[in-house]
Amino acid sequence: MNHHVLVCDDEPHIVLAAVSLKFSKAGFRVTSDNNGQAAWESILRDPPQLVITDLQMPLLDGLGLIKNIRSHPDLKDIPVILLTAKSYELEEEEVRVEHGVQQVLCRLFSPRELVSIANSLLGAAVAQ
After folding, report:
1. How far is 107 from 116, CA to CA, in rounded Å?
2. Rounded Cα gap, residues 32 and 3, in angstroms
3. H-helix or E-strand spanning residue 53
4. Pick from 50, 84, 110, 113: most CB atoms within 10 A?
5. Residue pLDDT tens, the chain, 128 long
6. Which residues neighbour 100 within 8 Å (Cβ) at sequence distance 6 or greater?
7. What is this structure's pTM?
8. How many whole angstroms separate alpha carbon 13 and alpha carbon 128?
9. CA dihedral for 51, 33, 35, 14, sign (positive or negative)
């Protein structure tokens, strides 16, 4: 079964080149959007099994997108990985507890590491 992952980032070289390509090669079905509002609309149309979102984006930021997901009864359990710029101060534990984010990664992540984290999260979600 191919897992569906939605990747949302306003920097095309990160979404298209690094993350989407790596996930596609790993057998995932990938949807990508370049702002939080477009991602939210995509999620409503075709819910993914995992969301990877940047924190700082136009129209709706990553935390706003996550709040929408967590407030929707049919979507609230979708695992989320939040990407942040290194310079952005973020209290990781607070984001995990208050927003139900499974993983927070600094922009200097390895796409291979991200796929590994996604597989772990999806394996745990399937086992529940």
Report:
1. 16
2. 14
3. strand 50-54
4. 50
5. 588 999 998 887 766 667 888 888 888 999 999 899 999 999 999 999 999 988 888 889 888 999 999 999 999 999 998 887 754 555 555 555 566 677 776 766 677 878 888 888 888 444 33
6. 66, 70, 76, 80
7. 0.82
8. 34
9. positive
**How many CB atoms are located within 10 Å of the residue 118 CB?**
24
Question: Is 49 within 8 Å of 122 (Cβ atoms)?
Answer: yes
Q: Which CATH architecture has domain 4-127?
A: 3-Layer(aba) Sandwich (3.40)
The confidence score (pLDDT) of residue 66 equals 92
> How does DSSP assign 75-118, residue by residue?
TTT--EEEEE-TTS---HHHHHHHH--SEEEETT--HHHHHHHH
Contact 55, 74 (CB under 8 A): no
Partners of 105 in the β-ladder:
83
Contact (Cβ atoms closer than 8 angstroms) between residue 101 and residue 95 = yes
Domain boundaries, the chain: 4-127
Residues 66 and 56: their CA atoms lie apart, in Å, by 12
